[in-house]
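hi! just following up on the protien thing from before. the input was this:
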Amino acid sequence: MPLYLTKFSYTPETWAKLIIKSEDRRRATERHIGAVGGTLHGFWYAFGAHDGYIVWDAPDNVSMAAVVLAIVSSGAPSSLETTVLLTTEEMIAALAKANDVKYQPHLPKAPAPAPVLARNRALRAYRCFTFVPL
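and the predicted 3d structure came back as:
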């Protein structure tokens, strides 16, 4: 089954509820993923850009999407991002298959006329100097 890494953050309201009535959110997470035939492999809280990380599996992307949609629709997370993880063996197979893919980059477009280039440079210079009133 595909493995997934989910990074999440809770809303301030969710944290407030957990402070009042603390609970082990791994149990709820196990129920959610179990409902689609998946398994929870790990659940961690963290300092930094995200409040926590989950590693779990699901039978397919549609099943994982269903779990993510159910969780997000509850309003508990302020952000939730799920990434499909590839095993080393899957990446090696993808690298071998990439050799058969014939990719040719698009040719660059002709350069813009000089007045357009000058205007674009002026706009970029203007964007570099943003003044904020005190």
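The two ends are 56 Å apart (CA to CA).
The helical segments are 12-20, 25-34, 61-73, 88-98, 114-128.
cheers
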